[in-house]
Amino acid sequence: MLNINIVSGIKARISTKPMTSLLIAAPFIVALTVSSAYARGQEGHSSHRPMQAMLKGLDLTDIQKEQLQELRKQARENRVLYRGERKEGQSLRQQADNLEIWDEAQMRSLIASKVANRQANKLAQAEIKHAMYAVLTKAQQAQLAEKRAAHKAGKVSEARAAKQHKRLLKMAQRVGATESQISELKVLHTQHVSVMNSLKITAQDHKRAEQAIIHADEFDVAQWHELQAAFTDSAIELGLQKAQYQHAVKQVFNDEQQAQLKAMKKRAQKKMKQKKKLR
After folding, report:
1. Percent helix, percent strand, percent coil in the chain, to nearest 5
2. Which residues, including other chains, have CB under 8 Å from residue 117's CB and lie 6 or more apart?
3. Alpha-carbon span 251 to 83, nearest angstrom
4. What's the rounded mean pLDDT across residues 184-190?
5. pLDDT at 85
6. What are phi and psi of 178, to 5 degrees?
7. What is the pTM of this model?
8. CB 45 within 8 A of CB 121
9. Which has the least CB within 10 A, 54, 66, 78, 153?
10. Percent of the chain with pLDDT over 90
């Protein structure tokens, strides 16, 4: 069972972090930010909500609920702590969005900066997840593992990619895309999925290794940093592939269509903000 004092330890370590610039690497392509899953998580959405949903049905005691509530509060404070970096990142992301000619060296540099600068935030998230997991008994941890396995079994990446692509094509049709443009989007999507499928294998291995650290009896910060360092090159390649695909998609649309897509994006963002206020 977790000693709730771990929260104050996490808080003390995080609060000393300097506010460095977080470079958002991938161009914010208007055609994708409304329809693609790549847009999610960019605005500081909680990465603990999936785990929070998984905790339902575990027959938690009042003490456990109180401890988890305190940890969720700390997670919210962490999001406020990194809000300044996200705002700076939005400006840099807009600069990348204005890139007319693909510059791989420039984009690789931006992505490498992003990977390096987000480590403190990722560490804070990992420590919170470890603390939340430590609240559970062994039986509850086993039950959580079963729920996660069942949830993962229900996910089909191919179906998710197809759904995202269908949304993109629907949006393209809404701005009057020609048959030639639609065909080009389909070719780009097929090529992108093929490359991403190979890259995701490494990413999934990394995620499992990180989860093992989070689920350990003691959170090993040095081991966590070693794992992130080993994954750096792969993380950069993943970001570069996403950015290149998004840039290529943007070039398919003419200026008038891009303006229409930008207006659609703004309306979608407004709706998302309204939904967040209602939560």
Report:
1. 75, 0, 25
2. 20, 21, 22, 23, 85
3. 31
4. 93
5. 63
6. -80, 170
7. 0.72
8. no
9. 153
10. 40
